[in-house]
Amino acid sequence: MNSPLKVGVVGMGGIGHTHCRCYKNDALAELICVCDLIKEKADQAAEEFGVEAFYSVKEMLSAHPELDIVDVTTSGYENGSWHYVPAMEAMDAGKNVLVEKPISNEVTEAREMVAFAAEKDVYLGCNLNHYFTQPAERAMKYMDDGQIGQQVYCINKVGFDGSEMGYGAPDKLSRWQRPYSHAKAFLIHPFSVMRYFCGNVTHIQAFMDRPNARDKAGDLMLSIQSIHMKFENGCVGYLLSQRGDAAFGLGGWWSFELAGTRGTFVIENCVEKLTYFQAGKEPEVMDTGIKDFSSTFPNRIHAYLEDVTNQVPKDYLRSSGRDALACLEYIFAAIDSYESGGEIVRPHALPPMHGDPHIIH
Ligand SMILES: NC(=O)c1ccc[n+]([C@@H]2O[C@H](COP(=O)([O-])OP(=O)(O)OC[C@H]3O[C@@H](n4cnc5c(N)ncnc54)[C@H](O)[C@@H]3O)[C@@H](O)[C@H]2O)c1
């Protein structure tokens, strides 16, 4: 039996606490310490979880050279500008890193992180948790069993439930007060779901906007995205996203439909429901009874712990840094397209996977 992996969590906001609870409840992990630049936050979390507190990643790494995993749950501009520094420090010390999404808010930094993980031969994973669900698992089985066939189209609709009546303008110092804050912080989730089922995207065309309520309040965020894409396998796709500008429509906060020549599936509300359609037959419905999206966190974190425990080949790591980079490349391609008035953009190539000569033959 392997002993549990020793984990330190960096960044003790709400999500850092969620991750700590996952490690505390997972037999594959032992939470050793927490870290935040803000002393009170680190101290509060250390007391809550009964572990040691640190106020810098360097101190934490030198006090605990035995750590197997550093989990980076910091945030920053566009919810990602504070990921690069602690993740690079931890990888430099030879640690496996699980980083929250987006892998970074800058694609150049994300490329460096993925390259550095390969150089240091560590497991760099990202918390692309939206497809660590029962509906996604069952949907993938329909695909593996040949019940979808050749992919025809996919549609992903994502929206936070909201309205102009409930809208509150951000203050000047908010991490959201940037045009691409929603695109960079959030679209990595729907793109990760689309790529999980349909593979790499080769062409992207995007339109973005914000409603009048945001304009009037001086809110810079482009909160509406309409993105058209083509996948390497020939499938066409559409992603529609809005951040609380309108009420939920059908399918809850996100729904994903993938249609193929042999069948179609629809996931509703991320964790809640899967329906499989075949022409001329009654639909098959799986209602999970789960409403709580937060169940995706322990699922995804357990998968990372399993992969590191089992020392899977690095290319097989689920929801890897490279997977997260792919989605960020799509976001940057969408931004380029929007800035050019809707030109078609081909996303930047991903780093090749060479494999490990010790394993492949
Ligand atoms: N996967 C998901 O479903 C999901 C959902 C929500 C948020 N997130 C992501 O989780 C991350 C954290 O979100 P949050 O709302 O908890 O953020 P937060 O701002 O509340 O907390 C981040 C903490 O990190 C600390 N910090 C920053 N740089 C640091 C450093 N170098 N060393 C130590 N501490 C540092 C800050 O002091 C702060 O306490 C974000 O990247 C966000 O995008 C993911």
Structure description:
The protein is α/β, with parallel strands linked by helices. The chain folds into two domains: 5-128 and 297-319, 3-Layer(aba) Sandwich (Rossmann fold), CATH 3.40.50.720; 131-290 and 328-339, Dihydrodipicolinate Reductase, domain 2. Helix content is 33%, strand content 24%. The chain has eleven helices and 14 strands. It has helices at 14-24, 39-49, 57-63, 84-92, 107-120, 134-144, 181-186, 188-198, 212-216, 296-309, 321-339; strands at 5-10, 29-35, 52-54, 69-72, 96-99, 124-126, 151-161, 201-209, 224-231, 236-246, 254-260, 264-268, 273-277, 284-287. The chain has an eight-stranded mixed sheet with strand order 8-9-10-7-11-12-13-14. The protein has a six-stranded parallel sheet with strand order 3-2-1-4-5-6, with helices on both faces. Helix 1 (14-24) links the parallel strand 1 (5-10) and strand 2. Helix 8 packs across helix 11. The relative contact order is 0.15. Bound molecules: nicotinamide-adenine-dinucleotide (NAD). Nicotinamide-adenine-dinucleotide binds at residues 10-16, 35-38, 41, 57, 73-75, 79-80, 82, 85-86, 100-101, 127, 129, 185.
